Amino acid sequence: MVLVGTGYETTKALAQVGAKVILACRSECKANQAIYRMKREHEEEKSDPTKQKVQIKVDDLHVEFMTLDLASLESTVTFIEAYKSRGLPLHVLVCNAGIFCGPKALTSDGYEPHFQINYLSHFLLILHLLPVLKRSGPGSRVVSVASGMYRLASWNVDDMQCLENPDLKNRYATSKYYQIMHMFSLAQRLEEKGVGVFSVHPGVVDTEICMRGGPEVPVLTKIRRTLGAKMLRSPFEGALSSLHAAASPVYDGKTAIYFESSTPRDVTAMVRDKEKQEILWKYSLECLKEYITEDISTELP
């Protein structure tokens, strides 16, 4: 079974409107299964307009797999080098991958998993691909899939990875809080550079997290069991915010916008705190110092 999530729907919709999409993920087997399903659904939707979720503009989908494991900084750098070596442009970078209530054990790089997979590896990915985004613009965009749960985050400058906090939901929330803070920090540094930076909250979506349930996600599991999947957003509905941020011409020339339900929303004062943003930025660079070359460090002031 191929599990369909917001990343699947985002990839498929962008490809259907004419984008050439790289599906970067850990499992080649699952990626190829997903691509096969996308193409099958695409053929069905071409022949039956009532099934179309977006206005299809191409005969064939251009989607391909590349290996990327965000739990490994080495894998992240390998993906970056492989992508750059192909000389491809990059108009939209959607950072969709992540974990919720994941393992408690540290990654092979020695970081808390939510911190690295949801935030730090994305930071590294964006930083190294900025030159490509700039060359591909103006109008290139970075879209990070965050979460409204960022409001439950904690800030502890002495425990930035929440290692002293056993609550996995708090660790997840804090990683998403960091993603949104990073949006503001990056947008400020990219002012007048032709690259827009956005964060989105997809909503509570009926995906693999809800289906697996378990003791670490009792709220989502209870919603699904008592109210049913119809009360949750479909994966495509969850992907709409990412699609708006990635492709809507309404947001040409704009940046530092946080979306919920495909609509720009205000964020809390905690996220907008510039002093905290700078502390996080410097801490992140320190974590990644072995993977940041001088030419990359000059990309941002």
List the helices and strands and how they pair.
Elements: H1 6-16, E1 20-25, H2 28-47, E2 62-67, H3 73-85, E3 92-95, H4 113-136, E4 140-145, H5 168-189, E5 195-201, H6 208-212, H7 218-227, H8 235-247, E6 257-260, E7 263-265, H9 269-272, H10 274-287, H11 294-297
Parallel strand pairs: 1-2, 3-4, 4-5, 5-6
Antiparallel strand pairs: 6-7
Helix pairs in contact: 1-8, 3-4, 4-5, 5-10
Could you give the distance between the termini?
46 Å
When the domains are counted, the total is 2
Would you tell me which CATH topology of the largest domain applies?
Answer: Rossmann fold
The dominant shape is globular
Order of helices and strands: HEHEHEHEHEHHHEEHHH
| CATH class call of the largest domain | Alpha Beta
Mean pLDDT: 90
CATH architectural type of the largest domain: 3-Layer(aba) Sandwich
What's the count of strands? 7
What is the gyration radius calculated from CA atoms? Answer: 19 Å
The unreliable regions are 210-216
SS content category:
alpha/beta
Question: How much helical structure, as a percent, in the residues?
Answer: 40-55%
Strand content: 5-15%
Largest sheet report: 5 strands, mixed
CATH homologous superfamily caption of the largest domain: NAD(P)-binding Rossmann-like Domain
Keywords: Oxidoreductase
GO molecular function: oxidoreductase activity
Family: Belongs to the short-chain dehydrogenases/reductases (SDR) family.
Pfam families: adh_short
